[in-house]
Amino acid sequence: MSQASLAKPPRSAEKSAAATVLSMLWRDKLAFVSVIVLLFVFLCALLGPALLGDLATDQNLRGRNSPPFDLSRGWAFVLGGDALGRPMLARLIYAARSTMLVAAGAVIASLIVGALFGLVAGYMGKTVSQVIMRLADVIMSFPSLLIAVVVLYVLGPSILNMILVLAITRIPIYLRTTRAEVLEVRERMFVQAAIVMGASHWRIIGRHILPQVAPTLITIATLDFAFVMLAESSLSFLGIGIQPPDVTWGLMVSQGRPYLGNAWWLAFWPGLCIVITTLALNLLSNWMRVALDPAQRWRLEARSTTDE
Amino acid sequence: MNDALLEVRNLSVDFHTARGTVHAVKQISWSVGRGETLAILGESGSGKSVSASAVMNLLDMPPAHIVEGEILFGGQDLLKVSYEEHRALNGKRIAMIFQDPLSHFNPVYSVGWQIIETMTAHGRPADQARARALELIARVGIPDPEAALHKYPHQFSGGQRQRLMIAMALMLKPDILIADEPTTALDVTIQAEVLALLKELQRETGMGLVLITHDLGVVAEIADRVVVMSKGEIVEQGTPREVYHAAKHPYTRQLIGAAHGKGEINILDIASPVLLEVKSLCKTYGAFTALNDVSLTLHRGQSLAVVGESGSGKSTLARAILRLEGVDSGQAVWKGRDLIGMTARDVLGMRREIQMVFQDPTQSLNPRMSVYQIISEGWDIHGLMPDRTARQAKVAELLEQVGLAPEHARRYPHQFSGGQRQRIAIARALALEPELIICDEAVSALDVSIQAQVIALLDGLRQRLGISFLFIAHDLGVVRDFADTVLVMKAGQIVESGPTGQIFSASQHPYTQKLLAANLDPDPDVQAQRRLRASDG
């Protein structure tokens, strides 16, 4: 394979980075579909509320719990209506924004903070590491829902506070993983080699250690996405999370729970949205792990040389 | 050959990997008789271990696939017997020992328990097994066998562990012992002892010994017959003398030619100025003394070899000079300035002038960086060569200098062989135009023929660019063709130092002499003479 890529004319080298990524994405059909799904969700979150107008919030008590796949009330009711007669499809699109905002915000914030402290704790001396780890233990020893309830009760429920609370409770996951990996990676020979060349601490952390740790962190982050969505829904269920008229998929699931017996679609569609989004993220992270690893990348490039 | 105990006939094994099918061995045949020692000689990737793994049913299938052939032992074809029947033979009739005994002993059980288990697992009573274990542990030369039974693997040295492994293999008096690189991980003096032990035990028990090795010296010392493997095929076979003196296949000739100790010995140019002067360095780890009053002088353009066995402190010395590790006392004067007392800022400047090449290139190159990034990193660090095209040209030049091609710059380390990776590491060291390169066991992890190439490369660089080398090795043979001065270290002290020629021809210290004697010569006749002299003396 390597020979083949070597023998190829320099044309391939001049191919733009974006084209290379796209072609590697095309090799993994599942990842390709995932990207399309995620782009769709992203567009819904970005443009949905503006396009839908009042459709998602207008109540229509005659259409309460109207069943799905019935087009007599118009296309918006194709997935049925909710307990207040609002069209499910419009509600789902409308909810995408808050859901994504809370989940992505919390996951990214906890990932960045956790990874940063983890890198420092793993790389620096014993005292710093001890302090950071004990702080993480303190966070972990509280039931996460309990912290959330207390903090949100004190600060008042808002999307920003939700992100803050969920991020704090998830930080130790990233922190501990990062630290454990750093402890192993920093003993590797190429780190020693970098020291001999005179590399600064930041260079060693950023250039030599972080790239080895990143794939693990990305995988955990995508798994955490679903967890954060569900945690947010339980907070909303308790009434200290997202406040109406704002809505999230998780909140829709818990609101649909009392009607599971006679109107399953109330909880089913938002649940499906959560599953599809998380699944797409997982498949994409799987692809990324392979695409980012030079030793594995040929799996995505290989067929391009044999196909032609 | 009717008296063959174990015979492999026309064995072909394929490996189905994601990158296509690899023919690991092709149509190979060998046999070993009672009391005979067969050596299978080959470099990494030659398929030398595959046939032994097939004998022991250790191949993972898939990915491995036995295409054809048979393995005859005691009148039956081992490739056709059931798993249960095979298990009854393994350990009992055919035993195996491995390169690294630490990874093959289970760390949570005592050594005695594990040795006894080989016998109880085959249905022998425990008290009988215990008696036999005691007898064998004493036989392989472990002091106080009764206490040794209750110790754990980490409490023994590497050589002792290999002895215990041999004891374990011999518990059930096997007919065949397969030894896969049994001495590769050991110091030379220990290697000689273990080989002598194997030979003695073979004489006592009359077992057939199959020895898999990459080392011509081991073959010369112990083998009755040798088969040479290259790329999955047997290219040559015969007695070690025939093969050494009248090799027919070009590969064998190349292998013999690569054995060190034949070239001109370098002479030191004392007129050149002193570059580095180490003055009485001392370093202890708790009760263990790593460096005890070590002093040395290195001139510009000199290649100084530091030779010692594991635990002699030679790596600590290198790490101390590079400020990777602190010392208790002493000085290392680099061009008039003491490295040990330098501030962190000054150390950065020094880092450009002294570079290091590590033992294992697989680990010393960041797997996620391309060759271009690896080589140019030093310029990033020190803010050199800001121009991109100039950089690319310089990387290409460096790659050519170490015998690689400019287009290799875009590839990643895993796409290269071990020898090529070490060349990349050397190119990285050269990128900063250092005045001194410290090579810490830089060729130990490489195949013999690759070793010779890398040493020739380093020697060429020394002559062309005037770079000095501090070359750390555990093996005297390796340094003979390269170093002009040799220091021999033992237990943190320099026991002998002098010009290479003098160390090799007229060494004074008994330890140096012992090292030289333990260093196996690839010529079977030389080895035979040495053995004769040893038994006389």
The description of the largest β-sheet of chain A is:
none
Largest interface: A-B, 28 and 36 residues
CATH homologous superfamily annotation of chain A: MetI-like
Percent of residues in helices of chain A comes to: over 70%
Integer tally of domains of chain A: 1
Estimate what percentage of residues of chain A fall within beta strands: under 5%
Q: What separation lies between the terminal Cα atoms of chain A?
A: 14 Å
Radius of gyration of chain B: 25 Å
List the helices and strands and how they pair.
The complex is a heterodimer of chains A (308) and B (537).
Chain A lengths: L1 H6 L3 H4 L2 H11 L1 H24 L35 H36 L2 H16 L2 H12 L3 H27 L3 H9 L3 H37 L11 H8 L8 H28 L5 H10 L1
Helix pairs in contact in A: 3-13, 4-5, 4-12, 5-6, 5-8, 5-10, 6-8, 7-8, 8-10, 10-11, 10-12, 11-12
Chain B lengths: L3 E14 L2 E14 L3 E5 L8 H6 L8 E10 L2 E2 L5 H7 L4 E4 L3 H4 L6 H10 L5 H14 L5 H4 L9 H13 L5 E5 L7 H18 L2 E6 L2 H7 L2 E6 L2 E6 L1 H6 L4 H9 L15 E12 L2 E12 L3 E5 L6 H8 L7 E6 L2 E2 L5 H10 E4 L3 H4 L6 H12 L5 H14 L16 H14 L4 E5 L7 H18 L2 E6 L2 H5 L4 E6 L2 E7 H6 L4 H9 L5 H13 L1
Parallel strand pairs in B: 3-8, 3-9, 6-7, 7-8, 13-18, 13-19, 16-17, 17-18
Antiparallel strand pairs in B: 1-2, 1-4, 4-5, 9-10, 11-12, 11-14, 14-15, 19-20
Helix pairs in contact in B: 4-5, 4-7, 5-7, 7-8, 8-21, 9-22, 11-18, 15-17, 16-17
How would you describe this protein?
- The complex is a heterodimer of chains A (308) and B (537).
- Chain A has 13 helices and no strands.
- The two termini of chain A are 14 Å apart.
- Chain A has helices spanning 2-7, 11-14, 17-27, 29-52, 88-123, 126-141, 144-155, 159-185, 189-197, 201-237, 249-256, 265-292, 298-307.
- Mean pLDDT of chain A is 82; it is low at 1-14 and 303-308.
- Chain B has 537 residues and is α/β, with parallel strands linked by helices.
- Chain B folds into 2 domains: 34-58 and 83-258, Rossmann fold (3-Layer(aba) Sandwich); 274-521, 3-Layer(aba) Sandwich (Rossmann fold), CATH 3.40.50.300.
- Chain B is 39% helix and 26% strand.
- In chain B, the strands form 4 sheets. Chain B has a 6-stranded mixed beta sheet.
- In chain B, a hairpin with a 2-residue loop joins β1 and β2.
- Classes of the chains: A mainly alpha (308), B alpha/beta (537).
